[in-house]
Amino acid sequence: MPSATTTAARTTAPVRQTREPAPGLFLTLIAVCSAVTAANIYLAAPLLPLMARDFGSAPSALAWIASVAQLGYAVGLLFFAPLGDSANRRRLVAGLTLVTALGLGASAAAPGAAALAVAMFVASAATVIPQLLVPLVAERAPAERRARHVAAVIAGLFTGIVGARVLGGLAGQAFGWRWVFAGAAVLTLALGLATAVVLPSRRRREGPLFAGLVALPSVLRGSPELRRACVRQAGMFGAWSALWTSLALLLTGPEYGLSTATAGLFGLFGLTASAVAPLAGGLVDRFGAARVVRSAYLIAAVSVPLFWLGGQVLWALFAAAIAVHAALVASHVANQTLALTATSTPATANTAYVVAGFAGGAAASALAGAAFSHFGWGGVCGVAGVWLVLGWGLTSVRR
């Protein structure tokens, strides 16, 4: 029988908790993890010509695979991201990391387009880790610097997107597209598990695990600001996705005839997003989200005719790429900050916001692939223009 002293010691002993890193290191780790995991959704876009050659089909016939990845991400967000309001984040991030790595490994070994699409859907559905981390960053940030902290993670996201296009294209050209997916699996596993270790190991709220998903419609109904942010980002992200996922088809086609690796270097213009994110965060903290979103839409509207001209003139394509990335990231920082502060359930609200954005992006990418097949690059620019008009027009009338 234990003594009274032993019993008291057991009773009063503090619960062991993981020591959290310094705030700067914590934010950096989350940003880097977000970059690697976000890249997984866009790996297919620069590799479409290599996949088509391997599977014996035309590159335009495989453009739908990029849409499958975005659709999978949207589905994963719908089911997993709301868990950030209730679940143990450490276990959730670790589990999703393992599933993502397995999905990427299956993508690397896929024998055909159908198997590749299924594996990419699974990997993309599980690679929602950044959207579990963004609400945590917003919670920990001082109110007067919240948008800047959110912007740091968004800068990581867009750096990953750029890396997927640039490094994915170069590595695919050098080693083959299958090794790109294998390498992504290893990186995701290492950084995802490292991030999980430093996250809080406790449930945030008691109750049904999927209560956030069930509450999603009522959260949307109760917040006009959240609905506006969702629709505007769906329009902006759809326009960007239509142009960016189809760009490899233009650059490697008869208009320019570039190799996959050279076309991938074009993604370096996407570094604009990483540079603009901190600036956009400061502007949101100072002037509010609405003014930043309005300016972003004006910049995006200018980029569409520049992209159309870029079908024949390379310098216009350069200018358009810079403009559309600046517009996208500024809009994203503003709208996501608004979504995270519009309700008392930030993870659920963030789910609605990001699902809306990626659903808009997946639909626009699918239409852009068909438009490129039937109408060429001009059809892709037309899809982007329609998405911008819808995103702004459906939210421009205030009650």
Can you tell me about this structure?
- The longest helix has 30 residues, at 146-175.
- The protein contains 17 helices and no strands.
- Helices cover 78% and strands 0% of the residues.
- With 399 residues, it is mainly α.
- α10 (211-221) crosses α16 (346-375) and α15 packs antiparallel against α16 (346-375).
- The protein is globular.
Short summary of the structure?
With 399 residues, the chain is mostly helical. Helix content is 78%, strand content 0%.
**Oligomeric organization of the protein chains:** single chain
Q: Please outline the major beta sheet.
A: none
Number of DSSP helical runs: 17
Distance between the termini: 71 Å
Coarse structural class = mainly alpha
| Overall pLDDT metric | 81
List keywords for this structure.
399 residues; mainly alpha; globular
What order do the helices and strands come in, and which of them pair?
Elements lengths: L3 H9 L10 H17 L4 H12 L8 H17 L8 H20 L4 H14 L2 H12 L5 H30 L1 H21 L13 H11 L2 H28 L8 H6 L5 H17 L1 H21 L4 H28 L4 H30 L1 H17 L6
Helix pairs in contact: 2-7, 2-8, 2-9, 3-8, 3-11, 4-6, 4-16, 5-6, 5-9, 7-8, 8-9, 8-13, 8-15, 10-16, 11-14, 11-15, 11-16, 11-17, 13-14, 13-15, 14-15, 14-17, 15-16, 16-17
